[in-house]
């Protein structure tokens, strides 16, 4: 299936508070290769850009004044993503904004998932790297994806970085679905156990079988909610560990 990797920039964090899309970037991937086919546009949000958002993407209200409104881009955008597998990092954020933009133009046009299959790369990253940073910046660092051209977050550049990160995360897989099945997950855990055993053998053959540890852990729901907020804050969040696992 043809894949499209998407990123948006916005005037603020919550579309339900009236915030709007200011940039859309899409990169096409076919047969695990990034093509030259892309969609990119800045968008006049018809409102002020919050200062905190401007610090992230560098787009000012003045710069966006002469850019097309979303209503002018809707047909071309929907045509570009129609029938694809639409890959987004923390998809609920971007999809919430895009569905709201479509609703403001014409509610009868439906929602994004009426046109394509939406998958969330953040969900895969959390399966592959539980308990670690899984923001796009952290994943790019982990998979050695070059981000040196990025000064600010930008829709098209971030979409390309996401595509490269995804291809690295799923390297060698014939099935490009983001959600690993139980067999794949079990195999990965087995491999991790083998790695830990080998590392312990290299350090010495201490026997820990009789030791008992009491571990108090957060619930899965608590961890999920916590990680969603930290991923939204980005890699500068002071609540994250400075050491990558």
Q: Could you provide a short overview of the structure?
A:
With 245 residues, this protein is an alpha/beta fold. It has helices spanning 51-57, 61-64, 70-81, 91-105, 121-128, 136-142, 155-169, 182-203, 220-233, and strands at 3-10, 21-30, 33-42, 85-88, 117-120.
Q: Topology, pairings included?
A:
Elements: E1 3-10, E2 21-30, E3 33-42, H1 51-57, H2 61-64, H3 70-81, E4 85-88, H4 91-105, E5 117-120, H5 121-128, H6 136-142, H7 155-169, H8 182-203, H9 220-233
Parallel strand pairs: 1-4, 4-5
Antiparallel strand pairs: 1-2, 2-3
If you had to describe this structure to a student in words, what would you say it looks like?
The chain has helices at 51-57, 61-64, 70-81, 91-105, 121-128, 136-142, 155-169, 182-203, 220-233; strands at residues 3-10, 21-30, 33-42, 85-88, 117-120. With 245 residues, it is α/β, with parallel strands linked by helices. It has one domain (3-180, 218-233): 2-Layer Sandwich (Nucleotidyltransferase, domain 5), CATH 3.30.420. Strands 3-2-1-4-5 form a five-stranded mixed beta sheet, with helices on both faces. Helix 4 links the parallel strand 4 (85-88) and strand 5. The relative contact order is 0.14. Mean pLDDT is 82; it is low at 172-187, 194-215 and 241-245.
Radius of gyration: 20 Å
Could you state the CATH homologous superfamily?
Answer: Ribonuclease H-like superfamily/Ribonuclease H
Categorize the overall geometry.
globular
Please provide the ordered H/E string of secondary-structure elements. EEEHHHEHEHHHHH
Distance between the termini: 33 Å
CATH class: Alpha Beta
Write down how many β-strands occur, each being a DSSP E stretch of 2 or more residues: 5
CATH architecture: 2-Layer Sandwich
């Amino acid at each position: 299936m043809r894949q499209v990797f998407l990123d948006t920039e916005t005037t603020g964090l919550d579309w339900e508070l009236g915030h709007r899309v200011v940039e859309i970037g899409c990169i096409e991937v076919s047969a695990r290769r990034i093509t030259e086919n892309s969609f990119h546009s800045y968008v006049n949000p018809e409102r002020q850009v919050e200062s905190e958002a401007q610090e992230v993407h560098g787009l000012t209200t003045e710069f966006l004044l002469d850019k097309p409104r979303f209503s002018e881009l809707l047909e071309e955008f929907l045509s570009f993503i129609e029938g694809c597998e639409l890959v987004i990092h923390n998809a609920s954020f971007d999809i919430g904004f895009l569905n709201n933009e479509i609703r403001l133009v014409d509610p009868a046009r439906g929602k994004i998932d009426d046109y394509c299959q939406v998958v969330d790369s953040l969900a895969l990253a959390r399966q592959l790297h539980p308990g670690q940073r899984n923001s796009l910046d952290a994943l790019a660092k982990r998979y050695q994806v070059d981000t040196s051209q990025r000064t600010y977050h930008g829709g098209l550049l971030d979409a390309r970085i996401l595509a490269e990160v995804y291809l690295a995360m799923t390297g060698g897989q014939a099935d490009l679905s983001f959600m690993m099945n139980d067999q794949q997950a079990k195999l990965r855990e087995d491999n991790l156990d083998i790695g830990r055993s080998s590392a312990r053998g290299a350090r010495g053959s201490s026997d820990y079988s009789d030791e008992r540890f009491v571990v108090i852990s957060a619930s899965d729901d608590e961890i999920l909610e916590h990680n969603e907020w930290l991923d939204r804050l980005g890699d500068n969040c002071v609540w994250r560990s400075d050491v990558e696992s």
